[in-house]
């Protein structure tokens, strides 16, 4: 769902993965282990242990050793430094504030589109989800073009008011919060909208019949029943904020959160401290995840009634007012997309002090095809994302099959390991990979992959394991186990049943997941910036160096390219889901 | 044709099927009937090969198939959910089994066509299966199972997803078709009416054990235990004491002194395999339960009954329920509440009545704690 943020969102679905391990479910749906299963279980388990779990252990180890000696020096430095503790605290409060702010925007918006009817509702409701289409770095950069010191809006206000300096500086925690709220309210909006559409209108009618006014109904019936949806959105926003790197990196200035602190320490070559920071970030994320899960898990509402549709939308009396408000709001939401598009037509060095760029040309796009250097990052990203996604599909098919269909020892562990990359920020993953795969010890399963073309696809693969596996798992769950039995009863062997029944039915859902994983990998930034080399530089990293070189047009061209690819993936993905 | 020998299936500590033996003859429709969780579906899945029995053997035409995979057994199966392949059209669904066997081209097409003709869906071959109604989907599932001409057809509650009116019609058509093809079939259901209408023989299961097997008529008129009696149709169970034997029948006394004659349970069905407890040698004074169906009871009254008046069970009518062809009266008696089937105006609520067995009916006696 979200390629707009620093984390592939497999959130609510991955909750299921973890739960699956516990529920040893129906006898008829899950077959007991067969000897042949080990051909599937062994590689799945091996990949999870080796690539997902193992590198994290090295980070843990690195945090308590220095040149082979055990020492707690790095931990002492972390907890003795106000700057380090400040970064930890900043990560936590920024995340909490992002949750509140996103909820304040997203939930009312969901109510507006789900419960009121006005001209243009459908179109505007769709546009309200547009931030989903912005890869994290692209969103951040568009804010720079819009609200930064030299941004369109900033200069516009400055000129109108005749000021000599910019009216504001987009820097520090407030800037980060602004970007977070803009990119993450979508979770609350989509989750609450989905929750409202599932919410049986009968409850509201029952409440009304019992004499409750609209406020009482909202407070005592509707909001509590939306609880799980809002809880899921809170969890997602919190985890995404904890892992967020682009926004604090570009706008933070002196304001540091843990992710940017890790990056800074890494540049300073303080390996021990990097490891400690990574451990702290990972542990904090996991603690909050566990805590929120607990709260969320304690309340679960399943509608007992059936048949009645969601509460009907009321025809607003002055519909056009709502239309105007909604249009204004969505227009504001679309500004970043339009900005990136506009800036992509600005040739290098032509836009200096003007409010709007004075010169436009398609030279940036032409350069993609004429200047090999401009094309290299595109090809790099395409190749690395494709390789990673193919691996994801193969892995997810096997893991999804195991988790949905088979019972075996260690299934809970497999489910937990599949969900782990979702809970661990990309920065932690990058640190873990950099620590583990920078030495050559084949017998310990360690190879020098850092600096080669292998490391980024591996990082993308690991980050997308939860997303793609959940897509496969959901497809397997929807597949009636009787279909496989029917094929068997009709004489089809295991392989034939797989080829003629299971694969055709699982593939659409798996493909939709893979497509999202692919675009996420195309725009991946957080792990990339810690692991790339000049030869392997991906789109996102090149975009940033364009920006550093004041080639705004060049950066925006890559941005547009990413937005278009993400939009295409979403369109295709939704159509596929719609057909299935 | 199909023989189940001492079949058992345990899941961990729970016993799903316990020592079940049953023979299905060629061309016979046998139904496994029982409440949910009785082991009937597990039994069917063992026959199909989806579950491995913990103990026992399955013989198909004298050949032991217990160790064979479902693919090698080649039984036709109709699933409760139909399990039609949603990505294939009707023809491709029906051809699936033929193609798995290696039949391609004209032969397979002709066989599929024949199967679709059987279920009267000849014109539907190119439809998407999701575009069909529930009844049509059910028939496609049947055609798909029949197309490879399996030796035995297994049906797992195939009618339960149809609405009531359609279910009855489909049931009758299904029996007609299976009989016309001379198909050997094992049918699973929890609906006794369906079992009666469809089966040549029925095996009643409870808690994993086969309670009784026989024709519908045998089971209804001579249930070998109280479970079978209670599960098949309505039954009154009345506590009584044995006074003695008279010509192969028991003479029993009900509370209030009424004396009725009763058949000892199991005596009419020597072939019953379940653990029937013969009461033939019951000594006087033994406690028993008498089973009488509502249609086996009537209200006494009039001159003809006066002499038998002493034999009637006295009681007061609680209420009457009109059920179309008959009416049912709940009567409070000294032996407990009794359900009597009668005409629409045989008695009024609150009326004092005497209850008698109808002519030619006698009660069946069961041990008191047989459930």
What secondary-structure arrangement, pairings included, does this model have?
The complex is a heterodimer of chains A (about 575) and B (about 375).
Chain A: H1 11-22, H2 38-63, E1 65-66, E2 69-70, H3 73-80, H4 82-115, E3 116-117, H5 121-127, H6 136-147, H7 152-161, H8 173-198, H9 201-209, H10 214-243, H11 246-251, H12 258-267, H13 271-297, E4 314-315, H14 319-343, H15 363-370, H16 372-405, H17 411-423, H18 426-436, H19 455-478, H20 481-489, H21 494-523, H22 528-531, H23 539-548, H24 552-579
Parallel strand pairs in A: 3-4
Antiparallel strand pairs in A: 1-2
Helix pairs in contact in A: 1-17, 1-19, 2-13, 2-17, 2-18, 3-13, 4-8, 4-10, 5-14, 6-14, 6-24, 8-10, 9-10, 10-13, 12-13, 13-18, 14-24, 15-16, 16-19, 16-21, 16-23, 17-19, 18-19, 19-21, 20-21, 21-24, 23-24
Chain B: E1 2-11, E2 14-24, E3 29-33, H1 40-48, E4 55-60, E5 63-64, H2 70-73, E6 76-78, H3 90-100, H4 105-118, H5 134-146, E7 152-156, H6 164-181, E8 184-189, H7 192-198, E9 201-206, E10 209-214, H8 216-221, H9 226-231, E11 236-246, E12 249-253, E13 259-264, E14 287-292, E15 297-299, H10 303-306, E16 313-322, E17 327-333, E18 336-342, E19 352-357, E20 363-366
Parallel strand pairs in B: 3-8, 3-9, 6-7, 7-8, 13-20
Antiparallel strand pairs in B: 1-2, 1-4, 4-5, 9-10, 11-12, 11-14, 12-13, 14-20, 15-19, 16-17, 16-19, 17-18
């Amino acid at each position: 769902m979200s390629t707009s943020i620093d984390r592939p969102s497999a959130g609510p679905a991955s909750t299921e993965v973890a739960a699956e391990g516990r529920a040893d479910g129906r006898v008829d749906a899950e077959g007991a282990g067969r000897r042949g299963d080990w051909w599937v279980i062994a590689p799945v388990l091996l990949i999870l242990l080796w690539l997902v779990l193992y590198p994290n252990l090295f980070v843990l180890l690195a945090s308590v050793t220095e040149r082979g000696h055990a020492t707690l020096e790095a931990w002492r430095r972390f907890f003795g430094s106000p700057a380090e503790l400040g970064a930890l605290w900043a990560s936590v409060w920024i995340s909490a504030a992002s949750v509140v702010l996103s909820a304040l925007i997203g939930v009312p918006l969901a109510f507006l589109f789900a419960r009121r009817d006005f001209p243009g509702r459908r179109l505007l409701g769709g546009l309200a989800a547009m931030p989903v289409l912005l890869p994290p770095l692209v969103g951040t950069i568009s804010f720079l073009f819009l609200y930064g010191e030299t941004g369109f809006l900033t200069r516009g206000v400055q000129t109108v008011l005749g000021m000599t300096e910019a009216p504001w500086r987009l820097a520090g925690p407030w800037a980060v919060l602004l970007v977070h709220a803009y990119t993450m309210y979508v979770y609350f909006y989509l989750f609450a909208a989905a929750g409202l559409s599932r919410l049986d209108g009968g409850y509201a009618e029952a409440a009304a019949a019992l004499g409750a006014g609209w406020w009482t109904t909202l407070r005592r019936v509707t909001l509590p029943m939306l609880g799980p949806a809002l809880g899921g959105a809170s969890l997602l926003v919190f985890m995404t904020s904890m892992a967020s790197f682009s926004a604090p990196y570009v706008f933070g200035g002196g304001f540091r959160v843990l992710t940017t602190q890790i990056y800074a320490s890494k540049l300073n070559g303080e390996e021990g401290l990097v490891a400690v920071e990574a451990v702290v970030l990972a542990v904090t994320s996991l603690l909050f995840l566990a805590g929120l899960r607990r709260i969320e898990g304690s309340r679960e509402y399943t509608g007992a009634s059936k048949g009645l549709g969601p509460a009907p939308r009321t025809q607003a009396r002055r519909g056009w007012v709502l239309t105007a408000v909604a249009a204004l709001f969505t227009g504001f939401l679309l500004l970043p997309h339009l900005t990136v598009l506009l800036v992509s037509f600005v040739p290098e060095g032509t836009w200096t002090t003007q409010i709007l760029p004075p010169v436009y040309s398609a030279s940036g796009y032409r350069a993609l095809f004429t200047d090999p250097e401009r094309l290299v990052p595109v090809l790099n990203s395409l190749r690395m994302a494709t390789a990673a996604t193919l691996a994801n599909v193969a892995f997810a098919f096997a893991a999804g099959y195991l988790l949905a269909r088979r019972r075996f020892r260690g299934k809970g562990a497999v489910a937990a390991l599949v969900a782990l990359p979702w809970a661990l920020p990309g920065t932690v993953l990058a640190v873990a990979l950099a620590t583990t795969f920078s030495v050559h010890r084949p017998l310990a399963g360690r190879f020098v992959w850092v600096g080669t073309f292998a490391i980024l696809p591996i990082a993308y693969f690991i980050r997308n394991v939860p997303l793609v596996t959940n897509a496969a798992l959901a497809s397997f769950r929807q597949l009636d186990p009787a279909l496989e039995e029917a094929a068997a009863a009709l004489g089809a062997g295991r392989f034939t049943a797989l080829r003629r029944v299971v694969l055709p039915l699982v593939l659409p859902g798996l493909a939709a997941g893979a497509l999202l994983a692919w675009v996420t990998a195309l725009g991946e930034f957080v792990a990339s910036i810690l692991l790339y080399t000049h030869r392997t530089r991906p789109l996102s990293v090149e975009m940033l160096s364009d920006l550093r070189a004041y080639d705004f047009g060049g950066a925006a061209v890559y941005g547009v390219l990413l937005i278009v690819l993400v939009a295409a993936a979403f369109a295709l993905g939704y159509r596929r889901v719609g057909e299935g | 044709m199909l023989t189940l020998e001492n079949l058992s299936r345990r899941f961990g500590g729970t016993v799903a099927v316990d020592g079940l033996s049953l023979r299905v003859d060629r061309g016979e429709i046998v139904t496994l009937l029982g409440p949910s969780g009785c082991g009937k579906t597990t039994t069917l899945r063992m026959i199909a090969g989806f579950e491995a029995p913990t103990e026992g053997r399955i013989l198909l035409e004298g050949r032991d198939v217990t160790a064979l995979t479902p693919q090698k057994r080649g039984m036709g199966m109709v699933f409760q959910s139909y399990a039609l392949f949603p990505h294939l059209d009707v023809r491709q669904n029906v051809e699936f089994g033929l193609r798995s066997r290696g039949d391609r081209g004209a032969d397979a097409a002709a066989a599929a066509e024949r199967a679709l003709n059987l279920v009267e869906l000849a014109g539907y071959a190119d439809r998407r299966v999701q575009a069909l109604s529930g009844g049509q989907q059910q028939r496609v599932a049947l055609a798909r199972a029949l197309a490879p001409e399996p030796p035995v057809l297994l049906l797992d509650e195939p009618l339960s997803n149809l609405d009531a009116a359609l279910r009855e019609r489909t049931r009758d058509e299904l029996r007609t078709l299976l009989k016309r093809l001379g198909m050997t079939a094992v049918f699973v259901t929890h609906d006794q009416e369906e079992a009666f209408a469809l089966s040549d023989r029925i095996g009643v299961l409870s808690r994993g054990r086969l309670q009784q097997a026989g024709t519908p008529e045998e089971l209804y008129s001579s249930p070998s235990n109280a479970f079978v009696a209670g599960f098949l149709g309505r039954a009154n169970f009345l506590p009584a004491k044995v006074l003695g034997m008279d010509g192969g029948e028991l003479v029993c006394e009900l509370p209030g002194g009424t004396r009725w004659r009763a058949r000892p349970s199991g005596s009419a069905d020597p072939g019953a395999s379940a653990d029937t407890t013969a009461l033939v040698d019951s000594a006087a004074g033994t406690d028993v339960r008498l089973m009488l169906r509502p249609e086996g009871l009537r209200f006494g009254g009039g001159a003809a009954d006066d002499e038998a008046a002493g034999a009637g069970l006295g009681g007061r009518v609680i209420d009457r329920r009109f059920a179309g062809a008959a009416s049912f009266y709940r009567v409070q008696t000294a032996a407990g509440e009794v359900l009597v089937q009668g005409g629409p105006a045989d008695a009024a609520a609150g009326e004092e009545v005497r209850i008698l067995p109808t002519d030619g009916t006698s009660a069946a006696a069961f041990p008191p704690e047989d459930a």
